[in-house]
Amino acid sequence: MSHTTHRFARYADVRAALADPALVPELPEADDGPAGASVAWLRASVARFSSGEPHRRRRAPVEAELARLEPAALREAVIAGAGGDVRTRVVRTLAEALGMPGPAEVAEAVLVVAGAYFGGGDATADEAVARLVAHLTRDPADEAAPETVANRIGLLVQACDATAALVAAAADSGDVPQARVLRENPPVRTMRRVAAGATHVADREIAEGGVVLLDLAAAGFAHPVPLTFGAPPRVCPGRAHALALADGLRGRPSTPFARLHQQAAPLLLPNAWDHASAAALAAQGFQAIGTTSLGVAAATGLPDGVAATAAATVALARSLGQGSFLFTVDAEGGFSDDVEEVAELARTLHEAGAAGINLEDGRPDGTLAPVELHAAKIAAVKAAVPALFVNARTDTHWLGRQEGETSTRLALYEQAGADGVFVPGLSDPADIAELTAGLVTPLNLLYAPTGPSLAELAALGVRRVSLGSLLYRRALAAAVDTATGIRDGRPPAGTDALSYAEVQRLAVR
Asked: How far is residue 242's CA from residue 77's CA, in Å, rounded to a whole number?
């Protein structure tokens, strides 16, 4: 029985189709052969070609496998790996990281399977599937083993194809930010869905069994916001890993600070306001320190957020730069709307030793800077100081303004070259999940004592969590409480004070 094929190429239509639970991946024909013996069996057993409960069950082991791997480590491994074409290096690196025996043999077989994975099949590919299943089965007595192995193979097949396509697209784009490469030349250009039941999408009635062809390339090129998949939206569990592998294969430089955003756990960034507070936090093992613009401003008797603390910020950066720890600087909106002046500030901070800069689009009057202006600042900074990690902050949620623009602003900041994006004030798990599903760069959030825990933020895909001015405000509160307690006859409560000698040691650069 033939069914009507519907083609969608407009962004809104494609996004609506991807979010419609009635539109499911085109399922492969049932395989009557023995388990583990053919490409047909593989296609019938993987998450990629399933939906509903089978998809969730099959996706789970893939997510668990990838959760063990730090994208930064994959990036370094693929750089250090032996030669070969892109697809071979990707599969071999990933197989070795996952602890698979004989990574070279695995890669050879996976490349054969990849040629038949998305349709068709032949005896050679079937034999490669059988070899992989025999090679990767850990416990033959485990009834779930065949399906688990199938999804490990599927992970490798998709990694080699998608990452190779990403590398090829990026190679033709020079130094264009990866977010723009993905929007303009996505590795997956089209996708097919089948209606599991009658549904209505973009003013079209789609009958049960109707085929929907989604032109992801056309839709993405025409809109700044990346497409998300599923209802609710979900992120590809291997996207960060694929991006890291592609970066390594492209030979793009990566700094130690940037790699802290590619770990299994989010980077917890405490924010200091002077040399002693930064040194004290670094001494406790924090991997990097941020500065807090409120703390710097208040400590010098100046207002925050009105471009009054440029000199104090640079002075603090020069002081911190004499230490041995990584630090990033909160620079408000760059203390200017002249993009060249912002770029010169960034160059000065980097020369002082800063590994990163935080640039916000909120303005002193409570409005938001034009998105084009903020994107221009980001692009100017990256052009002037490519090694400086730019964390592009939008205050849509912080100021309670234009929250519906959050994803659009972040997408444009990514495409301007931002290395990470920051949305202070965002704490709703559903909103966080929707954002991370569409982002390419790491998402930074501000920790809120009443919001999600660090573990919950990690599960939502957040890669960096800042403490902002919390430590400074608590320090002030503790100082006041100690002084008033002594005055009022109450013994000081809370943490014991550092000794004079300990503070002296922190003060010596």
From this structure: 13
With H, G, I as helix, E, B as strand and everything else as coil, classify residue 229: strand
Token pair 């399977």 is found at 113
Do 424 and 443 contact (CB within 8 A), yes or no? no
Q: Tell me the three state secondary structure of residue 328.
A: strand
Q: For the chain, list the domains and their CATH numbers.
A: 5-247 (1.10.630.10), 266-468 (3.20.20.60), 475-507 (no CATH)
The single-letter DSSP state of residue 392 is E
C-alpha 120 chain-centroid distance: 34
> Which amino acid, one-letter code, is at 304?
D
DSSP class per residue in 426-476: ---HHHHHHHHHH-SSPEEEE--TTS--HHHHHHTT--EEE-TTHHHHHHH
Instruction: Report which secondary-structure segment, H or E, holds 290.
Output: strand 288-291
Q: Which backbone phi and psi does 363 adopt, to 5 degrees?
A: -115, 160
pLDDT in tens, the chain (509 residues): 456 889 999 988 988 888 888 888 776 665 666 777 888 899 889 988 887 888 889 988 888 888 888 888 988 898 887 777 888 998 999 999 999 999 999 999 999 999 888 776 688 999 999 999 988 887 776 666 888 899 999 999 988 887 777 777 766 666 778 888 777 777 778 888 889 889 999 889 999 889 999 888 888 776 777 776 665 666 677 878 888 888 888 777 789 999 999 888 999 999 999 999 999 999 999 999 999 999 999 999 999 999 999 999 999 999 999 989 999 999 999 999 999 999 999 999 999 999 999 999 999 999 999 999 999 999 999 999 999 999 999 999 999 999 999 999 999 999 999 999 999 999 999 999 889 888 889 999 999 999 999 999 998 989 999 999 999 999 999 999 999 999 999 888 777 888 999 999 887 76
Quick check: 316 and 352 in contact, CB under 8 A? Answer: no
